[in-house]
Amino acid sequence: MDNRPIGVFDSGLGGLTVLKEIRKILPDEHIVYFGDCGRAPYGVKSPETIRRFTFQNTRFFLETGVKLLVIACNTSSAHAFKPIADALDFPVVEVIRPGSATAARSTKNKKVGVIGTEATIASRVYENVIREIDPSIEVYVRACPLFVPLAEEGPRWWNHEAARIITEEYLGGLCETGIDCLVLGCTHYPLLSGIIRGVIGGDIQMISSAQAVAAEVYATLDKLGMRRAGTQPGPESGVPACRDITFYTSDSIEKFKPLCGAILGEPAGARVFKLDIEKYESRL
What one-character DSSP code corresponds to residue 261? Predict the structure, then answer.
């Protein structure tokens, strides 16, 4: 048994979609979450900047003393997972391979679509990983750079007419490729799932990596005997989302709290703190 916390970080609020799924199956674990809202979005920045930000975030969690780190950001996973996993002496879980594996299992016609940030799509990581799993799968990708700012603006924008117009612009051509699965290759994108579903229709399966990542976290802790004492698999719903979670943000606490509550379905409470992430080293 290991009572140290699980660390989860994202460029902003999107990683909360992953945290929510982790809570469902590991309701007794202590989780420390960092949303780098002050420097979001990562997806429009250079690979060098993405790695610098990601290494600083990791330094924070090294100081915090976590037992497992979840990189709940596709852009960070694409550009910095390997050096982080190589440098740390505890498990690191990223979001790309779990989502890719789910898509490879789910597609019937071997045509998979992937949407993500500009940096994630430019890295070609999803194409490489999915084809590594099954070389016969055709992968069609689209960058959707405005989705993260829309998601970060809060619930009013998640189903706004402006979001629908942008989504139609991004996904119109992708739907014509014949894909039967669409990977939401950014943890912010599930917040826009209603709009995305309305544009792509009901025949295309949407895949978020959040559930697959949560399952991998559980399996990793279980295999290594690192679950918190007394931790049992949680129910599918009804878990107090913010019990025993400590939140950090690099931006406004006042803005973070209501958006966090809207995503998790539970008030964030008093355990939200401002973090000066720039004080951490950008090397591992």
Answer: H
Q: Is 175 assigned a catalytic role?
A: no
Model confidence, pTM: 0.92
CATH code (residue 60): 3.40.50.1860
Per annotation, catalytic residue among 37, 144, 181, 186: 186
Please indicate, yes or no, whether residues 86 and 145 belong to a single structural domain of this protein.
no
Q: For 38-64, what is each residue's pLDDT tens digit?
A: 999 999 999 999 999 999 999 999 999
52 burial level (CB within 10 Å; 0-12, 13-18, 19+): middle
pLDDT of residue 243: 63
**How are strands ordered across the β-sheet holding 272-274?**
92-93, 68-71, 6-10, 31-35, 245-249, 272-274
Q: What is the pLDDT of residues 231-262, one digit of tens each?
A: 555 544 444 445 689 999 999 999 999 999 99
Evaluate whether 75 touches 43 at the Cβ level (below 8 Å).
yes
How are beta strands 138-143 and 111-116 bridged, if at all? Answer: parallel
Mean pLDDT taken over the chain: 93
Domain, as residue range, for 108:
96-208
What would the 3-class secondary structure string for 180-213 be?
A: CEEEECCCCHHHHHHHHHHHHCCCCEEEECHHHH
**Do 86 and 218 fall into the same domain?**
yes
144 included as an active-site residue: no
Examine residue 1 and state whether it is found in any structural domain, yes or no.
no
Cis status of the peptide bond prior to 98, with omega within 30 of 0 = no
Catalytic site residue from 73, 144, 181, 260: 73
Backbone φ, ψ for residue 186 (5° rounding): -155, 135
Interatomic CA distance for residues 247 and 268, integer angstroms: 8
Do residues 232 and 275 both lie within one domain? yes
Closest by alpha carbon to 261, among 24, 9, 6, 20?
Answer: 20
What's the rounded Cα separation, in Å, for the pair 64 and 197?
A: 39
Strand duo 205-208 + 181-184: pairing: parallel
